[in-house]
Amino acid sequence: MTLTVAIIGRPNVGKSTMFNRLVGKKLALVDDRPGVTRDRREGDARLAELSFKIIDTAGLEEADDASLLGRMRAQTEAAIDEADLLFFVVDARVGILPADRPFAELVRRSGKPVILIANKAEGGKGMEGAYEAYSLGLGDPIALSAEHGEGLGDLYDALVPYK
Ligand code: GDP
Ligand code: MG
Questions:
Q1: 50-56 and 114-119 beta bridge pairing
Q2: Fewer CB within 10 Å, N or C, the chain?
């Protein structure tokens, strides 16, 4: 059976960049502007010899839409339901924001195994943010850079037990 992983986190932490990195193609739209339409995507991911199915989550359509949070939440919940394992992504440079917490809460409540990822940590940047991530209570963060492809060996080590 194929392992299914869902990438969860607030907008702009680098979920789609992570998805593209692992799928090896630019299937997901990466954008730093809030309010851009970004669909949920699935792809076949590869990390060294590990292969798994991966789900990117998004759901931002109109940033000022009152139902935005509800829609993002529904999409995240559906992806969590479908997954065997969750990647919870935070921005190591920015640290933990209030906006991270509702997503972390959904992850925690699901009871599914989670790998905590502190992204944007290229060149050893953002270590404070990575330490802050411990406060989410989702385990030890893996500091990496989806954009620069750094730290993927640590992600590999964390994934091996689930394969
Ligand atoms: P998403 O909203 O969580 O899917 O985030 P995106 O993948 O769209 O990325 C949001 C922004 O963060 C974009 O400008 C990316 O280029 C940037 N980003 C993603 N990963 C990294 C990274 O590893 N390092 C840095 N410095 N920026 C990144
Ligand atoms: Mg995205």
A1: unpaired
A2: N
